[in-house]
Amino acid sequence: MDSSHNKLTEFTLLWTQAQPSVMAFIRSVTPQLADAEDILQETARQVSMRFDEYDSSRPFGPWAMGIAKYKVMEWRRAQMKNAMLLEVDAIEAIHFSFTERFDDWKEVGRAIDQCIKKAPPATEKLLILRYLENLKPAAIAAKLGTTSNSVSVRLNRARNGLRDCIRKRMEVGA
Description:
mainly alpha
């Protein structure tokens, strides 16, 4: 095998391992899933273009996360007219948290999956409508034939239950 094939294999392995955590960071600071996916794609492109600059004696995930942070900042500058954006300080703080706990995110992801599977079907559906389909409570209420207030209360309970379940699973795994 030639060295370019080895580099591609190394990059692919490292990016595949880091990508879920990088996406989690991007998603946490980006209000719309479509925007987060666009930023992730730009991050992947930039990471692959700059892979020769990567120092393999250091962790790959935080390096890629740093590139993601700059891509989020670029996106933010382009979106400045939108008042719903997080402040730069908030993005910096979230980036720091994700980078510091980079290796924990796989376990958190597993805990989320397990807790969602353990949730009642109605709760699972509600979480999917809100967070995967990105619907607001009013749209969910229309879809489910209920009130927006009822959806908001149920979502709050679902988030609290999910948070408690995740914490318990993370404590057991620790």
